[in-house]
């Protein structure tokens, strides 16, 4: 836990996230190897790890994204709805919007 402005904020590292996903559904995601980078960095810029040759990278597991664009609009981007934004967010997310939710296949 680290202190926030008003109350402690709990942080979740990738190992904790992977364990939580497994405990909830007995599924897994291909994790990256940098322990200080959260899911936002791994999912939107790659997520290259030891299992990527077998499972692919974390970025490959994205099926949809909820995004706030620079003009303030909120969209749900998939391969079929807003495909240009969906593919632009794969690898260059911070240049196009703020991702509020990652929808991942496990």
Automatic annotation (TrEMBL):
Keywords: FAD, Flavoprotein, Oxidoreductase. Pfam families: FAD_binding_4 (PF01565). Residues 27-77 form the FAD linked oxidase N-terminal domain. The keyword Flavoprotein applies. It comes from the Eukaryota. The keyword Ubl conjugation does not apply. SUPFAM superfamilies: FAD-binding/transporter-associated domain-like. Coiled coil: none annotated. Gene3D superfamilies: 3.30.465.10. Belongs to the oxygen-dependent FAD-linked oxidoreductase family. This is FAD linked oxidase N-terminal domain-containing protein. It comes from Lepraria finkii.
């Amino acid at each position: 836990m680290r202190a926030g402005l008003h109350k402690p904020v709990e942080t979740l590292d990738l190992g904790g996230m992977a364990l939580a996903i497994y405990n909830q559904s007995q599924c897994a995601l291909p994790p990256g190897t940098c322990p200080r980078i959260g899911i936002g960095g791994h999912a939107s810029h790659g997520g290259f790890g030891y299992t990527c040759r077998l499972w692919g990278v974390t970025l490959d597991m994205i099926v949809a994204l909820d995004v706030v664009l620079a003009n303030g609009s909120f969209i749900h981007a998939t391969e079929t709805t807003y495909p240009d934004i969906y593919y632009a967010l794969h690898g260059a997310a911070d240049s196009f919007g703020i991702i509020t939710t990652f929808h991942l296949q496990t």
